[in-house]
Write a structure and sequence with these properties.
about 80 residues, mainly beta, Immunoglobulin-like, elongated
Length: about 80
């Protein structure tokens, strides 16, 4: 995932805190988010069953304040 501002500039400071939650029916899984470099974050998760999952990503800008839903979230993830 690449962090960008409203003007599509890559956010290279790596200070933002992301939370990735995947849900299917009554099951929830949280992913781990690791900063890589130049605004890129690696998301890893393990799903427990096949099917369509909902992925919600929230951000705490600079790790402060209330979490905000990122643009276009939620996403759909399919495990075959």
């Amino acid at each position: 995932m690449t962090a960008k501002d409203l003007y599509n500039n890559i956010q290279i400071h790596q200070l933002d805190t992301f939370v990735v939650a995947l849900t299917k029916d009554t099951t929830s899984v949280f992913g781990s988010v690791t900063p890589q470099s130049n605004g890129i974050y690696k998301i890893e998760y393990t799903l427990s069953s096949v099917g369509i999952w909902r992925m919600d990503i929230t951000i705490q800008i600079n790790g402060l304040g209330s979490p905000l839903q990122i643009l276009n979230s939620p996403f759909e993830v399919t495990l075959d």
